[in-house]
Design goal:
64 residues, mainly alpha, 2 helices, elongated
């Protein structure tokens, strides 16, 4: 069996490329927002579990 040549790229129209880049940017913005919300949720869970101490108490323990 012979090897078949396969292109490593595809051609798309400029307007389609622009639309895909805009879609990618919007998805990245959404993903950043989603991870930010997850970080807030984790922080709130840590507070409920008592893993977080107040900044004033931390400074007191550090002797500041």
């Amino acid at each position: 069996m012979g090897k078949t040549s396969i292109k490593n790229y595809i051609k798309i129209k400029r307007d389609e490329y622009t639309r895909l880049k805009k879609l990618q940017k919007n998805f990245e913005s959404f993903w950043d927002y989603f991870t930010h919300l997850k970080d807030i949720e984790e922080g709130r869970k840590d507070i409920k579990r008592g893993k977080i101490i107040a900044q004033e108490n931390l400074f007191r323990k550090l002797g500041l």
